User: Fold this.
Amino acid sequence: MTAPDTDVFDGVAGDEKDCQIYVANEQTALESPIGVSGTTLSLVGSRFTNGDILIVDAELMQVMSGGGTAVLTVQRGNGGTAAAAHTAGTKIYSACNYTDLSVQPIDAEGTDESSWCTVALTQQELDACTPGEALLLGSKTYIQPLSFWRRITVPAGTPMHNKSDLKFRITGTESLASEEIQIGIS
Assistant:
């Protein structure tokens, strides 16, 4: 999760706000086409680091250099996939699938206000969940986003301050998407 979840709350009267949060693999698109033998990817945005495995259409590539920039040198045809030509605008994803994903609100420093945060799969379920407890999200493939809802409840009489250390810890098991690619599931 690279985009921060921000909101402003009234601590004097007490306040409560819900927000839907999305979890997705890093992704961008090819800025220019690449041929079968090319090893340089020009991307619309910089999203990947050296060593990352990427998926472009049905081809796996490993980032060899240029991580952190929009121009990457890649090793083509990883994981038994065939190198192929790709057109400008083609989506590129981090090639990881995840199982047993869970999310838990945490407070990174100072007084622990993680109990102000409740998480649930749907907005309607927020009322029945226990504040501060973890939520099992399940599994996601590299191309599939997941979402969950969070509710922050700031108690009345809370002194005004900039609370920027409430975060979500997401845990699970990561695996390479190569098996699904080789058998043609995408």
User: Anything to note?
Assistant: The longest helix spans residues 178-182. The chain has two domains: 15-24+97-177, 31-89. Residues 54 and 94 are 5 Å apart (CA to CA).
